[in-house]
């Protein structure tokens, strides 16, 4: 039966594809993690970057916004307002820079794993 608008709803996987899908087993997970093992230090750096980016991106804005409204605007303190605005800008930039670092390290790890897998494949032929 067609979906509203006259279009048929498309399924992503057929029943055959679902039946032949690889099963996630402990052996498969061990094999996947074996490719990540040489890069565990970089993986930890990505995890730390995610945490830092989240904390810097989430915690300061509400605190800074509250201080802008409660102290700088109500108190007519232009110096404090400018300082808080620059602090908010700095927190946003720090969060974005950490995000860029995280993406760079993620890409570096994935490229190295692909390189290792290709070398392993070509050496086994």
Automatic annotation (TrEMBL):
Its main location: membrane. One of its GO terms (molecular function) is ATP binding. It is found in: Cell membrane. Residues 44-125 form the ABC transmembrane type-1 domain. It is a multi-pass membrane protein. InterPro entries: ABC1_TM_dom, ABC1_TM_sf. The keyword Cell inner membrane does not apply. It comes from the Bacteria. The chain crosses the membrane at residues 39-59, 80-101. Keywords: ATP-binding, Membrane, Nucleotide-binding, Transmembrane, Transmembrane helix. This is ATP-binding cassette, subfamily B.
């Amino acid at each position: 039966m067609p979906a509203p608008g006259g279009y048929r709803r498309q399924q992503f996987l057929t029943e055959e594809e679902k039946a032949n899908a690889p099963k996630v087993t402990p052996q498969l997970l061990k094999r996947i993690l074996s490719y990540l093992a040489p890069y565990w230090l970089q993986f930890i750096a990505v995890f730390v970057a995610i945490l830092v980016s989240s904390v810097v991106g989430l915690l300061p804005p509400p605190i800074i916004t509250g201080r802008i409204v409660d102290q700088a605007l109500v108190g007519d303190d232009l110096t404090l307002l400018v300082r808080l605005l620059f602090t908010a800008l700095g927190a946003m930039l720090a969060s974005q820079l950490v995000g860029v670092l995280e993406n760079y390290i993620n890409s570096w790890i994935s490229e190295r794993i692909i390189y290792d897998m290709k070398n392993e494949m070509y050496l086994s032929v």
